[in-house]
Amino acid sequence: MENTQTQQRVSSAKVSKMSEKKKDMISGYLYVAPFFIVFGIIGLYPAIFSIVLAFQKWNGLGEMDYVGFSNFAIVLQDPLFWKSLYNTVIIGLMGTAPQLIVGIILAYFLNMAVIRFTNFFRVTIFMPYITSMVAVALVFGVFFSTNESALANYVIGWFGIDPISWKTSEWGAKIAISLMVFWRWVGYNTIIYLAGLQSIPKDLYEAATIDGANKVQQFLHITIPLLKPFIILTVFMSTVGALQLFAEPTVFLGASAFNRDEAMTVVMYLYRDAFNLGSFGTASATAVLLLIIIIAAAALNTWLTSGVGNKKKRGVK
Amino acid sequence: MKQNNKKTSRSGTLPVYIVLTLASILSLFPFYWMFVMATQPSAAYNSIPPTLLPGGMLIENFQKVLDTIPFFQAMWNTVLLCTTVTVAVLIISSLSGFAFAKFHFPGKNFLFICILLTMVIPPQLGLIPQYYLISQLGWLDTLLGAGVLFLLNPLGIFLMRQYISQSVPDELMEAAKLDGCSNFRIYRSIVLPIIKPAFATLGIIVFTLVWGEFLWQFTVLRDPSSYTLQVALASLNNAFRVDFGMLLSGVFWATVPLIVIFLIFNKWFISSITEGSIK
Amino acid sequence: MKFKKSLLMVLLLSFSAILFACSEDNKSASSEEKVSLDFWVFGATNYESLAEEYEKENPDVEINIKTSELGDHHNSLFTAISAGTGAPDLAMIEVDQLDRYREAQDRFVNLYDLGAEDIKDQYLDWKWNGAENGEGDFLFGLPTDIGPKAMYYHTDVFEEAGLPTDPDKVSELISTSEAFADAAGKILDATDKPMVDSMEMAFRANMDALQVSYFNRDDELLLSESDNGVKEAYDYAVELDLQGYVGSFEMWTPEWANALNKGGFGVEMAPAWLKGYMTENAPEGAGKWRVTTLPTQFAGNWGGSYIAIPSETEYSEEAYEFSKWLLSPENQLESFVDSGLFPSAPEVYEMEEFKNNSDEYFGGQNTAKYFAEAAKQIPEVYKGPKYVTVNNEILTALRNVQEGGDPEKEWEDAVTRIEGLLKK
């Protein structure tokens, strides 16, 4: 009985050797199809529409006029565009780079077998991502109040720093918003790293312990290299997210968000063009420019990260 | 679960506890404050210095919310929307992630890059064409219209690809194939059990994302009976005559179910990969 | 056979999605006979209860109201009108938002075609004309509420400065912009508090009263014209600030609300809609605030709306009939009493209930009377579609001045920025 089964298996494996590859191919296409079907329905048209719009003058209601590259010229000559790009990059660096480092550390702690109450900590550290923006805006608004007795000013007073007007000064606004971005997304990245840590087979650590590697060595030589695909993922996503920053500054600044330039980001700049100025052409041109910047930045960052801790080439193929 | 760390002394863990506790306090504080505001009269919102202790209006504020908006219906709609979207995203992502991780087919890398590129389009600008599409498809006021946008989740595919390529051993797949398993059978009986923790991670991220999103849902859902929580809550926020106590009570009670759901999913995190792969 | 299963899976997925959509959709079939009107409103109105009343009187009409916050409301309306699909049968449009639709006249029903000429006399002229096109042969909407500005003043602050606290005496004393500045001086000396809460309000004092501001009807920028009033309004605000009469309480911030609550500044120049906010969010100010008329040269309008009918509707007649009923003087009185929407039909000002209206919060004063007086003095204004954005640049300049910027340089920078904006 057992014998015949093995025989069958061997023979069928031989016969279908060629078609097995083909079947895998078809399965591959079939399994990625759902995403592309949905994208074809809902994603493709807006993307093309935005690119076409970048070459038109359109206020959202009347006729479109083809204007060639003049929208790009207007945007590139606008000092506010460059200011918003500068703001975006600065807030991105201050708000997201520390996030990734802290995220890895927290995830590593949460994944340690000796630590108890990890359930509790996992929930609380993920809480900022769940907490509604209304509440976040409220808390950060009070903490970084323009009022001289505001909590943030009280804290910096310990270090002998004079009160800062957090919503209207060049660096005050950037620092406050960066902290908000950091606070809101660090738990999110922690959870992704945690998923990464859990995909690392435990026996690797056991082997390392037997070989006499200490905790720090294990972290540097096992955890970081094996976590690298996830690090690359979060770096990529944080780069994209940072360059598309919109919600935190608009909520933090409230009514004056679109009137001031200390913390205006590129997406706020294009949103203002489209919905406040009725200039969808320049808004779309800005979006196209942003697209190019994001692709460049994401590629650069991903490339840089791929180089970090390159022990064994095991990352993204 | 084999615990290699057990041998290390407990004393070394104290700094870890301190860091985690500090992180928890900082993370929880705004949520706590939201609860405080939900128990206070509206004017407490503006008080300087801020109010830090709960007041006695917990029930009263929530009663006002219930009188103003169809809270529970909106919650039901939200649960329905989030569950459907989450399940769909998990299926789409794990299938694609499986394909990208374990199959070879021409154009694979190109398609993968295409998926990542869909992330970089700023969502604010796509609003008008997307709205136009949805209305042409007749999906305004439907949960399908409100949810379809979220099915595009490049993060999910990336996460699943990574997880599957690291935690599903090729040998296991080969063996299954020799046994005559179809690729779908492998997906269902080998891949799915192994990637449970990744499902929990992605699931909670997607669920939360949809739960908290406002702009798109607001644009698509116009009929009050189809409102989701965020859309319904928005009508409490009226600058000329806003009652902050009521508003934050609404926001607070709209967040509580999420926490409950998180706690339920949380159990899945614990099941480590060893349980899945080595039976 | 192996892929058949996976194909089935994909099919199943798309099927369940479609099923899901259909199950949501079958409620519209029930009301075959009835005319169903979608009506989008923003802010606090009593239109829900009035609509119920209308439904009772007209059993064949059903009205679905969607209420949202001001910004969200106008964004989703713009999206629908822009996409040309999914707009409601009736929509409330705030006065500053109306101008952006002027170029897209064809997206709305001309109410003059439905006989709106007949009810024109019921409403204030300036308000009515604000919804007409340049030629005066197209009407976008019927007037809902208006926002005539009056002066809210804190009696404790006034008393401490040795100023009168009786509304009529206050308006008698502060009847010109110079007198306003004089009073501000006394308040600063005696109480160390600013007269005006913010630069925006100091600027608005004259701005809201301007018949011509940034643009003419052809949307040409007028800032470089010699007789343009914007610079004067700017200079007045700068002057007040120089003297220390202007605080830095930006509207709607907690600091501002706190100052309202505690009497952190002397006066707030605002329309009647502020009352609702104060009652709810500045409880300690109860009995301390009073309302009186502003100096004539500050008389202006701030806010208020129209109800328009997008041309997509199948029921323009029914929609018009309903809005005509909703905005009749009698119902405007009800909206005023219930929700504080200030009537645009002057007839209401003579009604007993309006005259006898008293505000608990304002120490039993009949504040409505002062707003009604102001309503009659308001000039007809044209703002133009880019008013708000252009205005924001000037406000930025003013805030910079307050933080120590040079007034002339800030002005010139703002004008440069505005010229850049208008190229878009």
UniProtKB/TrEMBL annotation, chain A:
The keyword GTP-binding does not apply. It is a multi-pass membrane protein. The keyword Transferase does not apply. It comes from the Bacteria. The chain crosses the membrane at residues 28-55, 89-111, 123-144, 175-195, 230-258, 278-304. This is Carbohydrate ABC transporter membrane protein 1, CUT1 family. Coiled coil: none annotated. Gene3D superfamilies: MetI-like. Keywords: Cell membrane, Membrane, Transmembrane, Transmembrane helix, Transport. Pfam families: BPD_transp_1. Its main location: membrane. Residues 85-301 form the ABC transmembrane type-1 domain. InterPro entries: ABC_transporter_permease, MetI-like, MetI-like_sf. Belongs to the binding-protein-dependent transport system permease family. The lineage of its organism: Bacteria, Bacillati, Bacillota, Bacilli, Bacillales. SUPFAM superfamilies: MetI-like. It is found in: Cell membrane. PROSITE patterns: ABC_TM1.
From TrEMBL, chain B:
The keyword Iron-sulfur does not apply. It comes from the Bacteria. Its main location: membrane. The keyword Cytoplasm does not apply. Residues 75-265 form the ABC transmembrane type-1 domain. CDD domains: TM_PBP2. It is a multi-pass membrane protein. It is found in: Cell membrane. The chain crosses the membrane at residues 12-35, 74-98, 110-132, 138-159, 194-216, 244-265. Keywords: Cell membrane, Membrane, Transmembrane, Transmembrane helix, Transport. SUPFAM superfamilies: MetI-like. Belongs to the binding-protein-dependent transport system permease family. This is Carbohydrate ABC transporter membrane protein 2, CUT1 family. It comes from Virgibacillus subterraneus.
UniProtKB/TrEMBL annotation, chain C:
Keywords: Signal. PROSITE patterns: PROKAR_LIPOPROTEIN. Residues 1-21 form the signal peptide. It comes from the Bacteria. Pfam families: SBP_bac_8. SUPFAM superfamilies: Periplasmic binding protein-like II. Coiled coil: none annotated. This is Carbohydrate ABC transporter substrate-binding protein, CUT1 family. It comes from Virgibacillus subterraneus.
